[in-house]
Structures are given as C-alpha cells and as structure tokens.
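Lecture notes, structural biology module. Today: joint structure prediction for complexes of four components.
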Amino acid sequence: MSTERRAPLDRHRVADTALRLLNEVGLDGLTLRAIAKELDVKAPALYWHFKDKQALLDEMASEMYRRMLTGTEPDPADTWQERLLKANRGLRTALLGYRDGARVFSGTRFTGIDHAPALEANLRLLTDAGFTLAQAVDAGRTANSFTIGFVIEEQGMRPLHGDGEVRERVDLGERARRMAGFPLAAAAGELLFDDYDRQFEEGLAVVVAGIGTRYGTG
Amino acid sequence: MSTERRAPLDRHRVADTALRLLNEVGLDGLTLRAIAKELDVKAPALYWHFKDKQALLDEMASEMYRRMLTGTEPDPADTWQERLLKANRGLRTALLGYRDGARVFSGTRFTGIDHAPALEANLRLLTDAGFTLAQAVDAGRTANSFTIGFVIEEQGMRPLHGDGEVRERVDLGERARRMAGFPLAAAAGELLFDDYDRQFEEGLAVVVAGIGTRYGTG
DNA sequence: CGACGCCACTTAACAATGTTAAGGAGATTT
DNA sequence: AAATCTCCTTAACATTGTTAAGTGGCGTCG
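The predicted structure, tokenised, for the full assembly:
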C-alpha cells in the first residue's frame, strides 16, 4: 500500500539533494522543478522552506562549507604556513567537488556561524605567530581571493560534466593558430591549460611566501 | 519625417550599448529585450549578430578588456614588479567600472586576439627579467587569479547600483552579534568589509613579493 | 467526540526569459 | 526586371522563478 507517508522535508535535506543534483545537471540545469522532482514534491513546496531560490543557494553554499570543515580538523600544532596551505587546499578541493562549485560558492553569503570557529582558530594561530589582527585578516583574504579566483577560472575552463567526466573547453590548436605572431603567448597556451594542480600549488606557495616576506614572519 | 533609416547594427555597437545598460540594470536585469529596446530594435534582431546570449556576453567581456588596454599603454621601461602592479590594478579598475563586471568577465572566454599583444609584452618583460616562460605564466596567472577572486568578492559585498551609488550588503552590527564568542572573528568584521582599495593593494603587494621570493628575481 | 487550527503540501496560474520559425522590406547583384 | 542577400519584424514556444488559493492530515482544546 502507498499509505507510507514521506517524512516532511527540511532545509538540510533540500540542500543535500540540490547539491547532489548540481553535479548531474550543473548550475544552469538546477531548476526548482528538477530539485522538487528529486524530492518527490512539486516546485512550490520548496517555498515553504526557503524564501526564494537564492536562499536555497545560500544554504547549499553553507553546506559545502560545512562538509569542507568536517574533512579538516585543524591541527593546533600547525605552523601558520601549514594552516594556510591546508585551508586553501581544502577550499579548492571542496569547490572542485561540485560542478560550478566556485560559482555557487562565490555568489552567496553565509547566514549561519558554522564558519566562525575555524575562522577564529586560524586568526588565533596567525596572531600567536606574530601577525597583527589586521595582517592576519589581510593574509587570509589574499589567499582566499587567490583560491576562489583560481578555481573559478579552472572550472570555467574544464567544466565537470554529469558523468564525472572532464571536458576541455579550449581548442589548443586553434588558439595556437590565432596566436601566430605572438610566440611567447602561443607557447604559453600549453602551460596555461595543463596541470591545474601544479599551477594551484605554485600560486599558493607564492602567496604564502609573499605573506612571510611582507609581514616579516617567514 | 521618419524616413531616417537607422544605421544597421553591428556586434560592436550592440556590445557597447549592452555594457552601458549593464551599469543601470545589473547582470540579472540585462535581458535581450531590454538591450534590444535600447537599440530601437526587437529582441530577435540580436540573433542576426550573435549566435546566442553567451556570445554577446563574450563580446562584452572582450570589449571591457579592450577598453582596459587602451587606458594603459605598457611602458617598456617598467620593472616586472611595476608591470604586474599596473596590469592588475588596471584589471580591477576595469572590472569595478561595470556592475557585476567580475561576474561577466570571469564567465566568458576571449574569442579574438586583442589580448595577445599585451600578453606577449608582459611575458617578454618577465622572461627578459630572468623568469622562465613557465614561471612567467605561473606568476601572471597567480596575480590574475587573486585579482579576479578579490573583485568578485568585492562586488558581491558592495554591489554598484544603478545610480552609481554603493550599498553595503552586510550588516556589521548583526554580524558582530552572531560572532559573539569568537572575539577575533568578530573584530575581523570591521577589517574585512572596509577599505577595499587598501586591502587590494596589500594583497597585490603580497603576491608580487611572493613572486620575487619564490622565483629569486626580487 | 468534534471543531478548530496549523503544518506541509498541491493545483493553477502568471509574467518574464531565451530562443526559433517564418516572413518581409529594401538594397544589391545578375 | 528578376533574383539574391541583408537585416529586421511578428508570432510563437517551452521553460523559468514565483504567487495565490486551496486541501488533507494531525494535534489540541472545548
């Protein structure tokens, strides 16, 4: 018998399902009707739990952030360099875990305080290492901006598709042809669109080194 | 008499008008019908000049980039530090010049070669200064990623509105209340959302310093 | 026990959007 | 003069976020 009554939804379950669906259809395919169907519900039902679609996206971003934190208990024995590296690697990994993850994440603001403990711990570590609070804030934001910017470009160039497959969006041969007459720019093509992991590590190392140099805590 | 025949459109004029309109209505309000009305034309006419809306957005991004370049003739006597600073300051200024500028810019890929000469000149300057090509590419992308990421956050926090007015999207008092129990994080609020110009300069200085440190060309 | 009321949803509908199909007026070419 | 090309219009379509109104189940209170 179908007298089984589906348990009522809540914000968490909706965001959960939406995140799972995001990886199949991408941000542009993530319609309220599709999410609702996945939950065995009609679209307007979502408005009982969320004020509008943006509120749902905010919840999704918060959930992404929560999952990122659970993967990485901060080690109090970290040096500030290690902490910055870990935090930003973790952020990138979390964003890459979802199709259009960076776009979703950067378009939303946190509503809760789930991020507060980690932020507090990081600021504490940096100030204990000799940074002023202002320096610690600047350092964190600089590294954070780099990571977000990098992943936005990365996901724009190599979108993750439904089947987990990665497809390049740039035709290197055609680019090289257009760049004839600009030898360095042409040669840069192969470097620009290959080995994002290495490029990210390189950039992150640059940022951390710069923080040490500029704030004299290296 | 209205026998005056309007000159036919072209991609450039459409992108021009769309960019002007962008500052009045924002990316979400930038519909094809609104752009068409501004051009005294019906919406489907745009499809004669552009394959789809994304193609128009690409053209807009290219135009933004072109305007950025005309403002800044690269000085061959620049040191690599000066060049990186100028290029990324210019990029930020260009992005801030349009409502949702960073979102428009980061969502698109260049189709032309307008950016090639400047890229070539920058790579030349860096390699002449002792960088390998790979290092020059990495350095440029790191700085670039930082700038894009920074401005995306900046414009997300302080959206530019139609009348050129800037409205804050964060209630600092409410944030401080939520952050009770996390003193450093709470105190960081005022630092995080104030004086973006200074924060950007600070971050850019960090990146440039890091490039010098890591690639031994400082 | 029955009426009330709240929760969590459904059905129906709306205006707006990107996009396509078909056609048409005017200039240009043959 | 006929045909073709350019650039645009009118009409329509499916899809989207969102709102309004209604409805069935469940607990509470008289």
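Point to remember: The CA atoms of residues 64 and 192 of chain B lie 28 Å apart.
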